[in-house]
Specification:
The protein is α/β, with parallel strands linked by helices. The chain is built from 5 helices and 5 strands. The protein has one domain.
């Protein structure tokens, strides 16, 4: 709750499209109050955004034509394409308990990404601070985007 409130009242909130509340950092407790820039979705099951951001996101919802597909892949692709940025806590505030019978993942995927991820219990404080901005020298084009970039003729740096 406190992290979402921080996001909604942050003076430069509009530079971020959304706030992912989860992050698969196994060393999250070492940076409990850091909020970092991200160029994609760091957690597909918990995030916050404004009405203005939703108007941008709605236009690209499930727009990715080539695998991997889905709303989260589409949004991450369009974030790269449009130079949109999000934010996420380094220490996750959300956890997916859906190891078995999940819709979009296998137990093996869950084990690899979420098994040992610690989640904040809220006792680490509320004095959040940014650990960005994103390093512009890191390329935003990911391997899973390449085929679609070629098909569509999109430009992603």
């Amino acid at each position: 709750m406190e992290l979402a409130e921080w996001f909604y009242t942050h003076p430069s909130r509009d530079r971020w499209l959304h706030l992912s509340l989860g992050h698969a950092a196994k060393d999250g407790p070492t940076r409990p109050l850091d909020v970092c820039d991200t160029d994609g979705i760091t957690s597909p099951w918990a995030w916050a955004f404004t009405r203005d951001a939703w108007s941008k996101m709605r236009e690209c919802w499930n727009s990715k034509a080539m695998p991997p597909k889905g709303w989260d892949w589409s949004l991450s692709y369009n974030m790269a394409k449009n130079s949109w940025w999000g934010a996420h806590p380094y220490f996750s505030r959300a956890f997916n308990i859906g190891r078995m019978d999940g819709v979009n993942g296998t137990p093996e995927w869950w084990d690899e990404h979420w098994r040992d991820v610690p989640v904040s219990d809220g006792s680490c404080g509320v004095q959040f601070h940014e650990c960005g901005p994103w390093d512009p020298s890191i390329p935003r084009l990911r391997d899973w985007m390449r085929e679609e970039v070629l098909m569509r003729g999109d430009r992603i740096l």
